[in-house]
Fold:
Amino acid sequence: MSAVEVADLLKLLDIERLEVDLFRGQGEGGENGDRIYGGHVIAQALVAAYRTVEDRLCHSLHAYFIRPGDPKIPIIFEVDRARDGGSFTTRRVIAVQHGRQIFNLAASFQKPEAGWEHQHPMPEAPDPEGLPSRADQRAALAEQLPEDKREHFKRRRPIEIRECDPVDILKPEKTGDFNRLWFRVATRLDQPLWVHHCLMAYASDMNLLASGNRPHGISWWRGEVMGASLDHAMWFHGPLRFDDWHLYVMDSPFGGGARSFNRGAIYSRDGRLVASVAQEGLMRPVKPR
Structure:
């Protein structure tokens, strides 16, 4: 993993200010080629909100995916300064393409405060250094894909992932919904703490939706299930540095109605719970033509 891909991700998140509360973000360059990856628009919207807030970190965000994003054109982000309070600041962000909403986000920010603390302990997991990288795993699988999909499948990405409980995405077997992975931005970054929040928000959409596929032994790569993020909620429990390894512990307690509900807990390497995630996603059977 080189610094080039990470620099491209930082450029993706460096959205352009058009007016005081109006921003333009790049549509191309994320994880997907045919539509905009969910974490891409989450992170850009969070950047837009952060650029209207001073000296406070985001503690929660709630987002809805309304229409597929078009990677061929920019995204316009409109920020509504809903409230500036003594302790909390609230922002609403609407993402627009082709004159229509594709996504909206509400985020809350808080000034630092002291209080009682508790958390669940981090589950056991093998160290990331002893696990194969996702890049190595995909290189081994690439030859089984159609030629027109191989390059995108193998291309280098800015988020380094090492799975503790991998499944064969081309020939999956039914397994438990619980799964763990280590992830990080693989280059040391001299960036403010709020940027690390945005980078983790970008990565938080990775693998989470796949938790619901695991009990059924199904995969998007085989064309048997239509999947898409429907909503995404995230709670940041404090400052973090995403250029260090973090353990992402996920499960899917419910699937039904062509949807799956998925949860995640993100721990720092030293066992601190730094973020929690919840998401509902589309899990619609693809009918043979």
Observations:
- The CA atoms of residues 43 and 201 lie 6 Å apart.
